Backbone:
């Protein structure tokens, strides 16, 4: 579609908000599943159900297999595998939903490195704000965010940024089909790592102890987060400018932190709210400054 409307009609606004709700509530649901499933085994199941049965109905996109494989490994083992490990014991769902948004700055950094894009003053200011917010989390995190948990979540965010860069190399692909078919490359490394580090007895015990709520959480990851979330987001981006759709993503940590408080009782002391405000201010500055200057 060549002519993209900068104005979202009400149905599209509601669709964007539905995606944000799914992505934001995703973090407490991850925590629920991790109560029974080992992290890497959980991630393996997530991508098994993201690939099947959707692959039976979606044609593989015409992109090089190495592109799909790279994306699948970065998003599968890099993003979600590491994130699940961090969320098992070392970072709370609310803070994980916030720290993962730092992928925006990793994406900018990779674009500058590979595309030789120049860093601009407002991007430095935005990064400083976010870095101060992360510093507050380091100082006050405690059990809510250990140094290990924060570090692992930042690695997961960097892997997400790497996946973004790989996906940008196939701009004409159907992104829903792209994500589904890339999932098949996420499964082998996750399964091997799970067997090596978690062991078959722990995997078997986790699957045996998983009840209906745990399996619902797995399917929520696969079908809600991947198929509905990515599919709907790609639908919106195909019909509207990215600058119109992207700001909705800033609501993900808001939904994530609110849901974590309401569902699992995650505390929201002032230091955590202050850190969130700084990180969000950095993200908002990075997103809106060029548009304000043009205006």
Residues:
């Amino acid at each position: 579609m060549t002519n993209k409307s900068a104005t979202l009609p009400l149905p599209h606004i509601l669709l964007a908000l539905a995606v944000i709700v799914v992505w934001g509530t995703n973090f407490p649901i991850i925590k629920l599943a991790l109560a029974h499933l080992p992290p890497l085994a959980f991630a393996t199941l997530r991508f098994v159900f993201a690939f099947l049965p959707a692959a039976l109905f979606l044609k593989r996109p015409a992109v090089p297999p190495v592109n799909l494989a790279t994306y699948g490994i970065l998003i599968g083992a890099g993003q979600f595998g590491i994130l699940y490990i961090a969320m098992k014991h070392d970072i709370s769902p609310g803070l994980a939903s916030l720290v993962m948004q730092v992928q925006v700055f990793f994406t900018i950094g990779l674009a500058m490195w590979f595309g030789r894009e120049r860093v601009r003053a407002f991007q430095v200011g935005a990064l400083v704000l976010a870095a101060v917010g992360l510093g507050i989390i380091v100082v006050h995190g405690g059990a809510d965010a250990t140094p290990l948990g924060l570090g692992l979540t930042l690695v997961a965010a960097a892997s997400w940024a790497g996946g973004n860069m790989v996906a940008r190399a196939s701009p004409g692909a159907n992104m829903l089909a792209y994500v589904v078919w890339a999932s098949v490359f996420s499964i082998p490394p996750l399964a091997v790592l799970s067997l090596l580090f978690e062991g078959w007895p722990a995997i078997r015990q986790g699957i045996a102890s998983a009840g209906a709520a745990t399996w619902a959480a797995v399917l929520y990851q696969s079908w809600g987060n991947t198929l509905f979330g990515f599919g709907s987001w790609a639908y919106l981006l195909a019909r509207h400018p990215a600058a119109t759709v992207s700001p909705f993503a800033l609501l993900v940590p808001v939904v994530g932190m609110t849901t974590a408080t309401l569902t699992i009782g995650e505390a929201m002391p002032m230091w955590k709210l202050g850190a969130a405000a700084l990180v969000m201010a950095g993200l908002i500055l990075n997103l809106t400054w060029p548009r304000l200057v043009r205006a």
In short: Residues 236 and 242 are 9 Å apart (CA to CA). The chain has 13 helices and no strands. The chain has a mean pLDDT of 88.
